Amino acid sequence: MKQLKYIGFLMLAVISLQSCHKDLLEPIPEAAVSSENYFLNDQQIETGVIAIYDAIQGVNSTNLNDNRGIQHEYYVTEMRSDNTRTKNQEGEAAQFESYAITPNNGIVENYYRSCYSTIFRSNLVLENLANASETMAPIFEGEAKFARAYSYFNLVRLFGDVPLIDRTITPQDDEIAFTRVATATIYDLIVSDLETAAANLSNGEYTRASKAAAEALLAKVHLTLGNYLEAQILCENVMGYGYTLEPNFNDIFYNEGNNEVIFVIAYTQGIEADSQDFSAEFMNGVGRTVGVNYVTEDAAAFLDANGGNRTEFSYRIDPLQPTQRQVVKYLPNGEDGGANGNVFASDATLSGNDWVVIRYADVLLMHVEAILAGGQETTNMAAITSFQTVRDRAGLTDAVTSITKQELLNERRAELAFENQRLFDLIRFGEAQNVLSDLSTANNYSFTATDLLLPIPQREINLSNGIMTQNPGY
């Protein structure tokens, strides 16, 4: 992981990957070191903090028993929107685009388990803060609570009510591990965690949690909850920290560490333990399960009409299959393959592209959304300034005098295409039912309102011995 010097073999001795499964409820020491006698000082707790980011990063592996972390997120988000699909409509991947997901879908289970692995590792750090120095304890707390809130925010938006686990638990804690808690209670924890993170952290990092990252994520939480004034204040805080838009849109993704990125999940090319393979999976002929997260005709047509200079850096015609369109924000290691197609100089399945979670353009558009406050239109000059700034960078310089809700949703689609934002935006704006129903009708899919939530993995339900319930429609 870039800029994170973590001790992999040591963490394997301390922490095993974690989920709510009864047989994985507590860390299993694989050597003489255990969690009870390890996290005794700042240096040791630091390895636990870095292991949290490692859990979000996920394992670059074809084995669904390995937690894939964010490397699988595009399946459960972008491919369930109108932006992307699979190339061949085969296997478990195609279930997402056609809204035919089953509770036994291994990708869904893996993502659920990965989120709880991050939550477990966060709880482990939080329970050992008494052993940290007075200087480092609040920083470790902020990072752990940021990661826990980030994971729960994804879980609650994707699955609805989920188990709330705010401490490490044992195999005897079935009620905690499998009892689904109301989303309002989960959001209370998310808000509290992010407020603590924002208070405890400073700025300067982008591969680790920062004050700006916590405030930006909390702003999105408040937008989701309809707390518009709180979101506006947080966005304006972040807008005062010196972030700027990259002049060249392509540099956001290929000039890593630029002044637009606020928080990324970092990867390193060529190192199996620290690389990712989703860049290769977006391509044709260079990955393991290639041709997923391909651009829909609808998204391509939308970008052609509305993307400005962002379009060429968002998708391209597949050089090996001209009827298909590929995402290009994450070409493996920045290599475009040239005129001969996807002939990469390096192993594309060991890519080093960072995954951008939060960037400044998103904050500017959230600022507009907060000022719009659920209304249909605004002429507020602060909102117009933020909106115009994003459009100007895209070469769309016609003066804006008002912004409608639909125009803002369209701008978010053009700016953040293929960044796992579209589904959540549709839901937050109240447009998911209409947009996805139309998409389903046009493509003979089977979307219904219950498809806005994923199924609880069947394995979790089986392990719960009757405690855990399934979402409607599954």
From TrEMBL:
Q: Check the record and name the PROSITE patterns matching this protein.
A: PROKAR_LIPOPROTEIN
The UniProt keyword set, sorted, is: Cell outer membrane, Membrane, Signal
Task: Please verify whether the record's keywords include Iron.
Answer: no
Check the record and name the Gene3D superfamilies matching this protein: 1.25.40.390
All residue ranges annotated as the SusD-like N-terminal domain in the record: 60-223
Family to which this protein belongs: Belongs to the SusD family.
Cited InterPro entries: SusD-like_N (IPR033985), SusD_RagB_dom (IPR012944), TPR-like_helical_dom_sf (IPR011990)
Q: What is this protein called?
A: Putative outer membrane protein, probably involved in nutrient binding
Q: Which GO terms describe its cellular component?
A: cell outer membrane
Pfam family, any one: SusD_RagB
**Cell location:** Cell outer membrane
**The RagB/SusD domain covers which part of the protein?**
348-474
